[in-house]
Amino acid sequence: MKERVRLMNYQQYLLPVLLLPLACFLLLGLFGKKHLKNASGVIGTASMFAVTIISVLVAGRYFFADGKVDGVYQHLIAYKYNWLAFSPTLSIDMGAIVDPISMMMIVVVSFISLMVHIFSLGYMKGEERFTTYYAYLSLFTFSMLGLVLSSNIFQMYIFWELVGVSSFLLIGFYYNKPSAVVASKKAFMVTRFADFGFLIGILVLSFYGGTLDFNALIQRLTAPQSGEFVSITTASFLGISMLTWGLCLVFVGGAGKSAMFPLHIWLPDAMEGPTPVSALIHAATMVVAGVYLVARLFPVFAIDVPALQIVTWVGAISALVAAIIACTQTDIKRVLAYSTMSQIGYMMFALGISRYGGENGLGYTASLFHLFTHAFFKSLLFLGAGVIIHFVHSNDLKDMGGLRKLMPVTHIAFLVACLAIAGVPPFAGFFSKEEILTASFHSNKIIYAIALFTAVLTAFYMFRLYFSIFWRKEATVHGTHNADGTASMKIPLIVLMICSVGAGLVPITKMVTSDGVPLETHMDVLFSLVPIVLVLFAIFFAARMYKKENGSAGKMAVAFGSFYKAATKKFYVDEIYLFITRKVIFNLIGRPAAWIDRNIIDAFVNGVAATTARISGLIKGLQSGKVQTYALYFFSGIAGLAVLFIYLWK
Amino acid sequence: MSTVPLTHILFVSTALFFIGMYGLFTRRNMITMLMSVELILNSVNINFVAFNKYLYPQKADGIFFTIFIITIAAAEAAVAIAIIINLYRTHKSIDVDDATELKW
Asked: Where is the chain membrane-spanning (chain B) (predicted)?
């Protein structure tokens, strides 16, 4: 009875969390343009505010009041509706799962979304499609909340596509800018391509598991005695078990959404969208959906080491490659985009090196801890970048410099965020990164080395950005007006700044663990010393190079030679894709297909039409319009039939 | 009283039919064509009456048919004349060769 009451309560709370943004989207999308032109921002923000409050309340209740039974966090189903029933055993449900990761995610998503809503009030002011913008934001928030609350894998897939669509709409928000249109198409196609893998993965897992429901799927595929487990591990394709196939294909979808190498090419281009959107979608929430997906299916991943190996290496390579590229980019948002990719790579390999349960699950906890802290400081960085771009009217680092006196609030906020992402104590990033480094140190020394090097690079490029924007030279733009922007732009910066300092103190390790049992972690001062010293050294190095305009940065670039050039060109990944699509696919598949279409299919259809036309040309003279001619035909016909029936048809 | 043999009557009706057919094909005036159609119909009527009288003298089916045909012929004449009048209003002519728009 008590159990029932508890579930009812969650349903009461979680339904409005989902339905408020949806209602807001419908309201603004349908009636906004005509009737709510000025109120749309306030309506969106108010509904988001309510959603955030409810989310925090629900999560607080789950984590601190009634989520634990005997010291273990439970997986609850708040509600479940049968949506499509194919057969008694196979149906698609619409439900909400309540467990540590979903609760953590709804807080992150709704909170960051609220901050972006508030920020956009100032940033997007006077924009022609202001209402549409808020409608899209609501759509995105709805889809993302639906994604994290999904109780079965197919429901998640539906919301997964919905976030993809809203991301597409928002990247292409400035639809009269050709580069934005191209970028939105690219993002959609790349993620859609990856989602194809996800769909096949879903089919594989659910075919062998016999269910789409997460809890049941995990239960069946992790029990070594169950028939489903035996069938999926014994069945194999190309010498690899179907379990590994299924998980890897699902991971392809996750990698596409999370911009993992080599499917990352859409993320830097996605920066064409409005900056607050980048903060929300392409930094804090949607791009971590891949991490969330792997975490959601983690118990299954944990029993399949090859799949985890792939997750680990894809994550590690993405983290490293993105960090190297970020050092060479000059577009402020692109640097941040690559930094996002690098940090998500961090989360990925932390999941990959983790195992299920207890101390072995440290990587899992660390990964989600990093997801949590990263959301705050990365969205802060993007919003800060938004203020700067708003003021300078350029994305290029060359046009910036010496802005620290003009925009004190942004300056402090950006500095805090840089310190947080670099992992300097006591800022948020330090704690989560430390957990990841500890976890990787205990499981794989090569990964640890990559992680450490990436951390150093991260500190370097973030402070390269910081010094280039705020120091380097005297401000070239002299504005007397308020460079920090309106109050609605300052408030989110300040709130997120506080979060970036304090988020590390939230005891995520005690709340989010692979098996639900709170994990006791302890800081090893000696262990932390190495990364801290290296990071401080990197910051110092960046300060030497970029604080004053001197030639050292250029010399450095020359010293690295072709490697530097390759990194500036993003290691030619885009060019490789273009080569594969333009040269290989177009020539080997596209052109033959076009030839067949033109010369065989079209020729057949055209031939039929031409023959018909020719025959009709021959006989159309018979329809002359002369009534007497018709009567003659008629009479000859009758006479012919008479002859036929009377004399010949004997 | 000697009776007229059936073949004589059929000969008359056949002659009437082909006279009507000839008129229908050669005349360009639509009134004349209508008259030719009436001739054809009447030849059919004669056939009906003759066959009824000579083959089934107890029955009256052929006579009924004849009455039907006369009725329908009257209606048909009314419709045809209406068409001809309309054609005359639009074309200022009742020559069939002047009204050949309805073609490919």
From this structure: 6-25, 63-85
User: B100 contacts in A (CB within 8 Å)?
Assistant: 624-626
From B99's Cα to the closest Cα of chain A, the distance in A is 8
Cα(A400)–Cα(A379) distance, integer angstroms: 20
The Cα A215–Cα A219 span in angstroms is 6
CATH assignment of the domain containing B33: 1.10.287.3510
For residue range A441-487, what is the model confidence (pLDDT) as tens digits? Answer: 888 888 888 888 888 888 888 888 888 888 777 766 555 566 677 77
Domain around B28? 6-99
Contacts of A627 in chain B (CB under 8 A): 96, 99
Strand positions, DSSP E, A124-249: 236-237, 240-241
B95 within a domain of the structure (yes/no): yes
Q: How far apart are CA A612 and CA A624, in angstroms?
A: 19
Q: Does A614 touch chain B (CB under 8 A)?
A: no
In a domain, B1, yes or no: no
E strands, A338-467, where?
Answer: none
Q: pLDDT tier at A387 (50, 70, 90 boundaries)?
A: confident
pLDDT band at B13 (very low <50, low <70, confident <90, very high): very high
Minimal C-alpha gap between A605 and chain B (Å): 24
Indicate the residue of B25, B99, B100 with minimum beta-carbon distance to A631: B25
Considering its fold, how many domains does chain B have in total?
Answer: 1
pLDDT mean over B76-94: 92
Evaluate whether residue B56 is within a structural domain: yes
Q: Which residues contact A110 (CB under 8 A, 6 or more apart)?
A: A17, A48, A51, A52, A55, A56, A141, A145
Least confident of A25-39, A150-164, A542-556: A542-556
Q: Considering the domain boundaries, does residue B87 fall inside one? A: yes
